[in-house]
Amino acid sequence: MKLSQTPISGLFVTESLALGDARGKFSRIFCERELAAAVGARTIRQANVSSTAVVGAIRGMHYQHAPRAEMKIVRCIQGRVFDVAVDLRRGSPTFLHWHGAELSQENGMAFIIPEGCAHGFQVLEPNSSLLYFHTEFYSPEHEAGVRHDDPRVAIAWPLPPTNLSVRDASHPPLDESFQGVSL
Length: 183
Ligand SMILES: Cc1cn([C@H]2C[C@H](O)[C@@H](COP(=O)(O)OP(=O)(O)O[C@H]3O[C@@H](C)C(=O)[C@@H](O)[C@H]3O)O2)c(=O)[nH]c1=O
Hints:
Strand content: 35-45%
Largest sheet: 6 strands, antiparallel
EC number: 5.1.3.13
Mean pLDDT: 97
CATH superfamily: Jelly Rolls
CATH architecture: Sandwich
Number of domains: 1
Distance between the termini: 28 Å
Number of helices: 2
Site (Participates in a stacking interaction with the thymidine ring of dTDP-4-oxo-6-deoxyglucose): 138
Pfam families: dTDP_sugar_isom
Shape: globular
Protein name: dTDP-4-dehydrorhamnose 3,5-epimerase
CATH topology: Jelly Rolls
Bound molecules: dtdp-4-keto-L-rhamnose
Function: Catalyzes the epimerization of the C3' and C5'positions of dTDP-6-deoxy-D-xylo-4-hexulose, forming dTDP-6-deoxy-L-lyxo-4-hexulose.
Helix content: under 10%
Radius of gyration: 16 Å
Order of helices and strands: EEEEHEEEEEEEEEH
Number of strands: 13
């Protein structure tokens, strides 16, 4: 697995080499040793899959507050998405910066998103599926969201946004006094 740092500290992109033979392909999704520079001593506590049918649909931008803040490893296992992380960490030199990358079944790339960054994605191919590994348990009381179209973040989505969940459509905009989250 190849691990690359992005412009946002602690946010990494991984690429896995797919090994092919007459039967098909084999590729690694997670390796504690190979991803140690990003994941450190964290423990994977949960794995989830989501599937999204409609091109242009957006899920996000989600994160959990401390003490349930979590790192997520996100990989596209079917189709293609534009995946985005936003830095919400108080005092971070890249506070409110976002970074996006196309993840697909084909390119085998994944995002490693640290605690204090919100995550979301837009579907670029019908029936795209994401596989997540989480370092914390799901905790609805600690869940929070940022609008996909928050003007202070200004994410450049590749397609017109569609199919937001009721919850995602109702995240409030960040107000001017928002200084970030503490971990
Ligand atoms: C995230 C999650 C949801 N759920 C439930 C709540 C709800 O009934 C249903 C769907 O949840 P949501 O609408 O929050 O699903 P979704 O909008 O796909 O949420 C996901 O969005 C992306 C962007 C992420 O980064 C993920 O961590 C996760 O927050 O599943 C769980 O039971 N466990 C979980 O870990």
